[in-house]
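Why do we care about 3D structure at all? Because function follows from shape, and shape follows, mostly, from sequence. That is the central idea of this module. The next example makes it concrete: a single protein chain, its amino acid sequence, and then its structure expressed as tokens.
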Amino acid sequence: MMLSVATLQAVVALQEQDYIIGDPEVVLSESEGQQTAHITVFVPEKYFRLNTYLDLIYETLENTSTDTLKIEVLPELYEPPRLLEWDET
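And the structure:
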């Protein structure tokens, strides 16, 4: 099953506002006949620590659920990759 256009548009809108970083990870499951998309999104620390922004992310994505696919959001703290320090000796 594919994500709906509304869900994909919501992801892009959140990315453009820097509320989420990178592409989300999506895992599909089915329980009692209901398909669910578990969407892991990576949230910068400045938004991850504030419930207002987390609520916005949850509502924006979960409101795109349909009769055939429930959206469940799993926010994770985005940790930028560390730069390696080179020893010039």
